Amino acid sequence: MNLNELEILEDDFDLFVVLDNKEKIEFLFDAMNDGIEASVTKQTSKLSESISLNKSKIRVEDFIIEGTRLCLTLTNNQVHLNSDSLKAIRMFVNKMINDGLLLWPIKTEKTVFDMYKYFKAYKIIARGTPISSN
After folding, report:
1. Do 1 and 39 form a contact (C-beta atoms < 8 A)?
2. Do 63 and 120 lie in a common domain?
3. Neighbour tally for 80: CB within 10 Å
4. Cα Rg for the chain, rounded, in angstroms?
5. Which residues contact 84 (CB under 8 A, 6 or more apart)?
6. pLDDT values of the chain reduced to their tens digit, one per residue, 134 residues
7. Which of 102, 106, 113, 119 has the largest count of CB atoms under 10 Å?
8. One domain, residues 79 and 44
9. How far apart are CA 33 and CA 21, in angstroms?
10. In sequence order, what are the residues at sequence separation of 6 or more whose Cβ sits closer than 8 angstroms to the Cβ of residue 73?
11. How far is CA 108 from CA 23, 96, 133, in A?
């Protein structure tokens, strides 16, 4: 392998810097054998796959419960509730439990993004069938 003949441009080098040592060796090997474009394409697709697998989906919605706004932040396995009313938070938690979510309270600090007075966080342990109130 003759690395002196390999020309890595600025954009390709930015990708090269992001790679770990094993991936850098693979990048150089592929660049020498298949060309720099094929090597960049291969490593870029590998990076995008790993990012999409690790990406957590976050959903934020606001609800009005008895005239009080409640902000719901939902991730893959956590629920964060933020409101000026504890009653609204309790009502929403009861609704989620009745809808079949098994929740466990967790200690999570309120952040600057949680602008309302009360904050509660729960871990979603399991999802089941809805519970009938009858």
Report:
1. no
2. yes
3. 21
4. 24
5. 68, 69, 116, 117, 118
6. 566 677 777 777 777 777 888 888 888 888 888 888 888 888 888 877 766 655 567 888 899 998 999 999 888 789 999 999 999 999 999 999 998 889 999 998 887 777 889 999 999 998 888 876 66
7. 119
8. no
9. 19
10. 58, 59, 60, 79, 80, 81, 82
11. 37, 19, 30
Residue 24 lies in a domain: yes
Q: pTM of the predicted model, to two decimals?
A: 0.56
Structure tokens at 131: 């519970």
Is residue 30 located within the same domain as residue 73? no
Find out whether 82 and 68 touch, Cβ atoms under 8 Å: no
Beta strand 68-74 with 118-127: parallel, antiparallel or unpaired? unpaired
